[in-house]
Amino acid sequence: MQCSKVNPTCCKLNPGTEKFCFPLSSGEIIKISEYLERNDFFTQEINDKEFIFRLTRLLPLPRKQVFQLFPLDRFHKRLKTDKGGRCILLRENGCMLPENIRPAYCRIYPFWFKDNRMTFIKDSQCLAQDNNQSVKELLKLFRTNYVDLQNHFDAMIERLTS
């Protein structure tokens, strides 16, 4: 499915929402840098109140820990986007990174885990969600499964907190 050709997605954001792009872990930056043999794919973004608030709602961590990991007015790193909001790693046929090199968030979107249950991040502009209303249908569409997604999610949280 070539969602990014049709709608804004996790790869193509609405301009002005880039600051909410999910943070990269240092391990993800190293892995992508080694693969690309360059490090111009990320940028620093300030941890403002709105960003931190969103993370406290998304991450399965105590609120205090989120504030410790992302202190107000400090910085986190995220994937760089162009002026139109497209991830600079997005190409005509999708992401230029092989799946095993992509950031964990990119690998699991639109799926998410809350209270040990899998769900999906509801996105009114997600083409996949327009055509598939259940987690089961989305799993089939993305050719993935609960166990793999849970492993990617757990690893993402582990990398963010280490």
How would you describe this protein?
This protein has 162 residues and is an alpha+beta fold. It has one domain (3-161). The protein has helices at 26-36, 49-58, 63-69, 104-108, 127-131, 135-141, 146-161, and strands spanning 42-46, 75-79, 90-91, 94-95, 111-114, 117-120. The strands form 3 sheets. It has a two-stranded antiparallel ribbon. It has a two-stranded antiparallel sheet with strand order 3-4. It starts with 25 loop residues before the first helix and ends with a helix.
Supply database-style keywords.
7 helices, alpha+beta, about 40% helix, about 15% strand, about 160 residues, two-stranded antiparallel ribbon
Termini separation comes to: 34 Å
- Give me the Rg, rounded: 15 Å
Q: How are the strands of the largest sheet arranged?
A: 1-2
Q: Give the strand tally.
A: 6
The backbone outline, from C-alpha atoms, is globular
Strand content: 5-15%
List strands and helices in order, with pairings.
Blueprint (H helix, E strand, L loop, with lengths): L25 H11 L5 E5 L2 H10 L4 H7 L5 E5 L10 E2 L2 E2 L8 H5 L2 E4 L2 E4 L6 H5 L3 H7 L4 H16 L1
Antiparallel strand pairs: 1-2, 3-4, 5-6
Quick gist of this model?
The chain is α+β, with helices and mostly antiparallel strands. It has helices spanning 26-36, 49-58, 63-69, 104-108, 127-131, 135-141, 146-161; strands spanning 42-46, 75-79, 90-91, 94-95, 111-114, 117-120. The chain is built from 7 helices and 6 strands.
